[in-house]
Design a protein that fits this description.
mainly alpha; Cytochrome Bc1 Complex, Chain D, domain 2; 5 helices; elongated; binds heme C; electron transfer activity; heme binding
């Protein structure tokens, strides 16, 4: 391939990559939203805790959330409810549900 042809193709390849990345992200979010229904009673579909002993998940880093779920699943972190719930999650489920909760935007108001 000639050099100038190659140079002209680069932006198109980048654009196609972005479109696919966008679609993958949307698919992940959709799957994540569906998965999050099984978390909603305690963590809310919006990621805001609905029970006193469950933490907010909204807006946390995806890596952090995934590490916690993996730790529950492996038994490294233990909790009567979360250990059972995490045991039923596949790697894809964890990727999807953490994509959902980490994508939620949170606004904070610091006390004056
Ligand atoms: C029956 C209530 C309940 C349900 C349902 C539930 N959780 Fe939890 N979750 C908890 C509680 C309680 C904790 C706090 C555990 C602890 O104290 O160590 C927790 C902790 C977590 C944490 C660790 C957060 C942190 O900052 O340490 C993550 C991540 C999490 N849950 C994700 C999920 C996901 C994803 C689902 C659904 C697939 C889910 N949970 C379903 C009750 C629940």
């Amino acid at each position: 391939m000639r050099r100038d042809t190659r140079r002209r193709l680069v932006p198109w390849i980048a654009l196609i990559g972005l479109v696919f990345a966008g679609e993958a992200r949307a698919a992940d979010l959709e799957a994540g939203r569906a998965k999050a229904k099984m978390c909603a009673a305690c963590h809310g579909l919006d990621g805001l805790s609905k029970v006193a002993d469950a933490p907010n998940l909204a807006g946390n880093g995806q890596l952090y959330l995934a590490r916690q779920l993996e730790a529950f699943r492996s038994g490294e972190r233990k909790h009567p409810q979360m250990t059972v719930i995490a045991a039923g999650l596949s790697d894809d489920d964890i990727a999807a549900v953490t994509a959902w909760y980490s994508a939620i935007k949170v606004k904070v108001q610091v006390p004056q």
